[in-house]
Design goal:
heterodimer, A: about 450 residues, 4-stranded parallel beta sheet, B: about 475 residues, alpha+beta, 8-stranded antiparallel beta sheet, 15 helices, 19 strands, globular
Chain lengths: ~450, ~475
C-alpha cells in the first residue's frame, strides 16, 4: 500500500499531541483487556496515528491493523484526564484508510450490504421484507439442518439466526396516521426511528412513541429522516455521513416551517450520539455549521425526555397505578455511545429504578463495550466474540434474568452472546422503552402486541 | 546496536509462543514510549507469563548481548521503560496470576503484573490496606511501582513503596533467580538487597514476585481544606500541626496558578485570589481524628487562614477532593504538552521552594503550576507548553535545570517518586558527586557484566543534556 502525502494530512495530528501518554485509558479499553497488548490500546493507537502523520511508519498496513481492531466505543474518552478527543483521531484514521486501502472481499460485501442499504429507505424496506420472508420460511434453521451453514462465513452463520423476529414491513403500514396539529403549550417532539432499529426492533420504536404519548407529549414520527450516518462515519465513509446529515437537517427544517419542534427524540444510543455529532461533522462547512449545531442541540435520548420533571409526573402516575408487582431481576447494559459520547449515564438507570417492585443488579464492567460496535462484530468476528464472552460472564455473575439495552447493535450482540453462553432460555434482552412500556403501560392489560423479544426469539427458534 | 535476526526471533518464539512475541511495526511503535519524552523502537516485544520464561529470555539476551528493558504498563514519568538501545521490551503486565493475601502474617504475595488498584481492592476486602497510592494506581503495576519505588500522597504518615516490600524474587541479568528478604518485618540476614532492587529502575534484574507488607485499614477518615492568603503562613501552619503531634495521612498543596487553572476549567468557587490551598486527610479512630480535626482548624486560624472547611459527610468529602482531582484535566487544557516534575525538599523549605519556582516561571516566561504532597516536601512543578514550539521548549529545558538546581540547593533531591530514568540522568552528578555515581556503577557492573539490563538509564552518558523532544 502506498500512501500519498496529501492523504496523511487527513489524520487529526494536532489532537494526538494532546495525549500525554499517562495510560489512564488502558483499564477502560475492552480490546486492551482482551488482547493484552499496548498495540490494541487507545494510547498505542493514538501514538501510531501520530507516527503515521509524521511519516514515521514504513507501511500504512501497520496502522490499519491497529485501527481495525478498535471498537470505536470511546470509553477511553471518558477515562482520559486530558480531554483527548479520541473519536476524532480514530475517525481521521478511518478516513485515511478508507481512501488508501482496498479492503478484503468480505469487508466490501458487508459494507455494500449494510452501508448502502441503510442509506435508502426503499432498500431498507426490501431488506426487512427479505429477512422477514427468510424467517417465515425458516431458512436459517433449514440451512443449519442440512449442514449448508458451514459454507457461510462465521459472522453471518452465527449472527443470522440470532436476529429477532422481524415483523413483515407491509403489516406495519397501517400504523402510520396523519399528523394532528399540536395544541399550544404542548411539548412536541419528532421521533427519529433510525434504520436498522426500525427493521430489527420496531417494537421498541413503537413503545417509545407510546411512552412519550403517555407522558403527555405530542409525538410526530420523523418519517422524512434517513439513516443517521453513524455506520458510514465509523467506517471512514465521511462523504455518505455528511450527505445523510444534511438530508436530516433539511428534513427537520422543512417540518419546522409548520410545527414548533422541541426535541428530536431517538431510542438508539449509537444513532443519538451520531445525531449530536453532526455539529462536529459539519463544522468545516460554513453554510452548514450553525444549522448542524442547532439540529444537534435538539437531539436527545428518550430517557431524557421521559425523566423531564413535568412529564414524569404523568408517567409515574401510570406506573403507580400498576397493581401487579414485578418479579424480575434486571441489569442494564449501557450503549457505549450513549455513555461516552452523549454522556447520558443516569437517565436510563433512574427510569429503571422508578418501576416499583423490580430488583436491579449492576453488572460488573457494565460500561465496557459488548463488542457489537457497528459492524465490528462482522468484520472483526473473533475479537468481538472474545469481548462478548467476557460480557456474558459478567452477566451470568450478576444473576439477572433481564438485560436492558438501549441500542439495536447492543441488543443483537447480546442475543448472540446469550446463545453462545447457553443462557438464552434463562435471560432475555429487552429495549429500555419496551421494558418500560410493559411495566408501566401494559401491566394491567397486557396486550399481545408488546410481546418481549424473548418470546419473539423463541417463536423464531421453534 | 544490532537488530535481531530471524533465527533469534524464532528462538524467542520457542520460549514464549508466537502470539506473545511481537515484532510488527505497529507493535514496535506501541512499545516505544512511556508518559515522559522520547520514542525508542524496540526490535521485539515479549510478554512472559511465568518466571521460567523470564529466566530463559534473560539468558537468551545475555548470551546474544541483546538489551532488555522490563516494563509494566509504562506510566513512568522519567523514561524507565523506554528501550533506548532497542532490543527486547519485556512486557510484564500480563504476568498477573498471583495475588494472595495472608491475613495472619499481614502480607500479600503478588505477581509483578498485578495492578496497584487490584491489590488495593483485594487488601480492603480483607479489612487491610496497602498504603502506597501513586496517582496512576488504577493503571500501573506493582512490578513497576517496586522498580521505580513509587510514592503518592500518603508518604508522610505511611512512607513509600520501599517501606512495604519485605521480599522479592528477582531474575538476575545473567539468568539466575534469587530471593531477597522474606515475609517478616525484621530481617538482617546479609546485605539488604531488597532495598537495593526497589527503585533500581529495572537496571539490576527482573522482579517476578514480591512479598508486600499490609496494615490494618484505619476505621475512619476526616477531610479538611484550608486556604491561605500567604503561602508562607500555610508552611508555618503545617509545621505547627506536625509539632502538635498530628500526622495527617495526606496533606496536599495547590498554589494560586493551580487554583486558577481549576477554576477556569470548571468553576467550583475556589478562592482564586488566595495564595495556597491545603487539603488534609486524617485517618484512624473516629474519636481521635475528630479531636485532631478541631486542632487543625484552630492552628490554621492562628496562622491567618482565610477559610477552613471540614467535610461533614461523604458528599462534602468528595467535593473538597474534587478540586485536587481536577488539577490534571484543568492544566492539560492550558497547553498540550505537560512536563511533570518531581522535586522533594525538606518540609521547612516548602515556602521558599515555591517562591523560587515562581521566580523561575517569571524568568523563563512559562506556564508553571505547583502542587504536591506538602507533608513530605514532594512538590510537582508542572510546566505547560507546546512541543511544536521549539523556542519555548528550549526555555522549558533551561527552567527544568533551574528547578533541579533549586531542589539541591535547598537540601532536597532531584526526584521524590518519579525516578531518574533518562529525564534526570544529566543532573545526577549534582546530587551524588562523581564518586557517588562511580560506586553505583560498580554495583551495576557486578550484577550485569554485559550491561544488557535496561541500558541507558540512571547513569548519564558523557556530555548528556536534557532534551525534551519526541524526535
Amino acid at each position: 500500500m502506498t500512501e500519498s502525502k496529501s492523504n496523511l494530512s487527513l489524520l487529526a495530528y494536532n489532537e494526538t499531541l494532546s495525549c500525554v501518554r499517562c495510560g489512564y485509558c488502558l483499564p477502560a479499553c475492552p480490546t486492551y483487556e482482551t488482547m493484552g497488548s499496548e498495540t490494541d490500546s487507545p494510547r498505542g493507537r493514538i501514538q501510531l496515528v501520530k507516527a503515521a502523520a509524521e511519516g514515521k511508519l514504513n507501511d500504512l498496513d501497520s496502522l490499519a491493523m491497529a485501527i481495525d481492531n478498535c471498537l470505536g466505543c470511546r470509553a477511553c474518552e471518558t477515562a482520559c484526564p486530558s480531554g483527548v478527543r479520541y473519536g476524532q483521531i480514530y475517525e481521521s484514521a478511518k478516513r485515511l484508510l478508507y481512501a488508501e486501502r482496498t479492503p478484503s472481499f468480505f469487508v466490501r460485501f458487508v459494507r455494500t450490504c449494510l452501508l448502502r442499504t441503510v442509506k435508502h429507505k426503499g432498500a431498507l424496506k426490501l431488506m426487512g421484507m427479505l429477512l422477514s420472508f427468510m424467517q417465515a420460511i425458516r431458512l436459517p434453521q433449514a440451512v443449519q439442518k442440512v449442514g449448508l451453514d458451514r459454507f457461510l462465513p462465521a459472522p453471518i452463520r452465527t449472527i443470522w439466526p440470532a436476529l429477532p423476529k422481524i415483523p413483515h414491513p407491509l403489516a406495519l403500514r397501517k400504523e402510520s396516521r396523519p399528523i394532528q396539529p399540536p395544541s399550544p403549550g404542548e411539548l412536541t417532539v419528532l421521533f427519529f426511528q433510525g434504520c436498522v432499529m426500525d427493521v430489527l426492533y420496531r417494537n421498541a420504536n413503537l413503545d417509545s412513541m407510546r411512552l412519550l404519548k403517555a407522558a403527555g407529549i405530542k409525538v410526530i414520527p420523523f418519517q422524512a429522516a434517513r439513516c443517521c450516518g453513524a455506520l458510514h462515519a465509523h467506517a471512514g465513509d465521511e462523504k455518505s455521513a455528511r450527505e445523510l446529515a444534511k438530508h436530516n437537517i433539511e428534513a427537520l427544517e422543512r417540518l419546522e416551517l409548520n410545527y414548533r419542534i422541541d426535541y428530536v427524540v431517538n431510542a438508539a444510543g449509537g444513532c443519538g450520539a451520531m445525531l449530536q455529532e453532526y455539529a462536529q461533522l459539519l463544522s468545516d462547512e460554513p453554510e452548514w455549521r450553525e444549522r448542524a449545531k442547532r439540529f444537534a442541540a435538539k437531539c436527545v435520548d428518550i430517557s431524557y425526555v421521559l425523566l423531564d420533571s413535568g412529564n414524569q409526573v404523568k408517567w409515574r402516575s401510570s406506573a403507580d397505578s400498576a397493581q401487579e408487582t414485578v418479579q424480575e431481576t434486571v441489569t442494564y447494559q449501557p450503549s457505549c455511545h450513549m455513555t461516552h459520547v452523549q454522556k447520558n449515564r443516569s437517565a436510563p438507570l433512574k427510569l429503571i429504578h422508578s418501576v416499583p417492585g423490580i430488583r436491579y443488579v449492576p453488572m460488573e464492567n457494565a460500561d465496557m463495550c459488548c463488542g457489537s460496535a457497528g459492524i465490528y462484530n462482522f468484520i472483526r468476528y473473533e475479537q468481538s466474540m472474545d469481548i462478548l464472552d467476557r460480557k456474558m460472564e459478567a452477566l451470568k455473575k450478576s444473576g439477572a434474568t433481564t438485560v436492558i439495552a438501549t441500542n439495536p447493535g447492543c441488543m443483537l450482540q447480546l442475543e448472540l452472546g446469550l446463545k453462545r453462553a447457553h443462557l438464552h432460555d434463562k435471560v432475555k434482552v429487552v429495549h429500555l422503552a419496551e421494558w418500560l412500556a410493559q411495566h408501566v403501560l401494559d401491566l394491567s392489560n397486557r396486550s399481545n402486541r408488546s410481546t418481549s423479544q424473548f418470546e419473539n426469539r423463541r417463536n423464531c427458534d421453534e | 546496536m544490532k537488530r535481531l535476526t530471524d533465527k533469534e526471533l524464532a528462538e524467542l518464539e520457542g520460549i514464549c509462543g508466537s502470539d506473545r512475541v511481537k515484532w510488527r511495526e505497529e507493535d514496535r511503535h506501541s512499545y516505544s514510549f512511556d508518559a515522559s519524552f522520547g520514542r525508542h523502537l524496540p526490535d521485539v516485544v515479549v510478554q512472559p507469563l511465568a518466571r521460567e520464561e523470564v529466566e530463559e529470555i534473560v539468558r537468551f539476551a545475555n548470551r546474544h548481548l541483546i538489551p532488555i528493558t522490563p516494563r509494566g504498563r509504562s506510566t513512568s514519568l522519567s523514561g524507565g521503560p523506554l528501550p533506548v538501545k532497542g532490543g527486547i521490551v519485556l512486557d510484564l503486565s500480563r504476568m498477573d496470576g498471583k495475588l494472595k493475601i495472608d491475613t495472619d502474617d499481614l502480607v500479600a504475595v503478588v505477581s509483578p503484573g498485578v495492578t496497584t488498584a487490584r491489590l488495593h481492592r483485594e487488601a480492603e476486602a480483607h479489612g487491610l490496606m496497602y498504603p502506597p497510592d501513586p496517582s496512576s494506581s488504577s493503571v500501573c503495576t506493582i512490578g513497576g511501582n517496586i522498580a521505580e519505588n513509587a510514592g503518592g500522597p500518603r508518604g508522610l504518615k505511611y512512607g513509600v513503596t520501599k517501606d512495604y516490600v519485605l521480599g522479592l524474587e528477582v531474575v538476575m541479568p545473567t539468568g539466575e533467580t534469587i530471593r531477597t528478604g522474606g515475609r517478616t518485618i525484621k530481617n538482617v540476614t546479609g546485605y539488604d538487597l531488597t532495598k537495593l532492587i526497589v527503585g533500581s529502575e529495572g537496571t539490576l534484574g527482573i522482579i517476578t514476585e514480591a512479598v508486600l507488607r499490609l496494615i490494618p485499614k484505619p476505621p475512619a477518615s476526616e477531610t479538611l481544606m484550608a486556604v491561605f492568603d500567604d503561602i508562607v503562613d500555610s508552611g508555618r501552619a503545617i509545621s505547627s500541626i506536625l509539632a502538635a503531634g498530628i500526622v495527617p495521612a495526606k496533606m496536599e498543596l495547590m498554589d494560586r496558578a493551580c487554583m486558577e487553572a481549576v477554576e477556569q476549567y470548571e468553576p467550583s468557587g475556589l478562592p482564586i485570589h488566595s495564595d495556597a490551598l491545603i487539603l488534609f486527610e486524617l485517618d484512624g479512630h473516629p474519636a481521635a481524628i475528630a479531636e485532631e480535626a478541631e486542632q487543625i482548624i484552630r492552628i490554621c486560624e492562628r496562622f491567618r487562614a482565610r477559610d477552613v472547611r471540614r467535610a461533614k459527610d461523604e458528599t462534602e468529602r468528595e467535593e473538597l477532593w474534587r478540586a485536587r482531582k481536577q488539577v490534571s484535566p484543568a492544566i492539560a487544557r492550558i497547553k498540550p504538552t505537560k512536563i511533570s516534575e518531581d522535586i522533594c525538599v525538606p518540609k521547612s523549605k516548602i515556602p521558599e521552594a515555591i517562591e523560587r519556582l515562581r521566580k523561575i516561571r517569571d524568568e523563563y516566561k512559562l506556564h508553571l503550576v505547583v502542587f504536591g504532597h506538602a507533608g513530605d516536601g514532594n512538590l510537582h512543578p508542572n510546566i505547560l507548553c507546546d512541543q511544536r514550539d521549539k523556542e519555548e521548549m528550549r526555555r522549558v529545558e533551561q527552567a527544568v535545570e533551574a528547578i533541579f538546581r533549586t531542589a539541591i540547593e535547598l537540601g532536597g533531591t532531584l526526584s521524590g517518586e518519579h525516578g531518574i530514568g533518562t529525564m534526570k540522568s544529566p543532573f545526577l552528578e549534582w546530587e551524588l558527586g562523581p564518586d557517588g555515581i562511580r560506586f553505583m556503577e560498580k554495583i551495576k557492573q557486578a550484577w550485569d557484566p554485559n550491561g544488557i539490563m535496561n541500558p541507558g538509564k540512571i547513569f548519564p552518558r558523557p556530555g548528556q543534556r536534557l532534551v525534551l523532544s519526541d524526535d
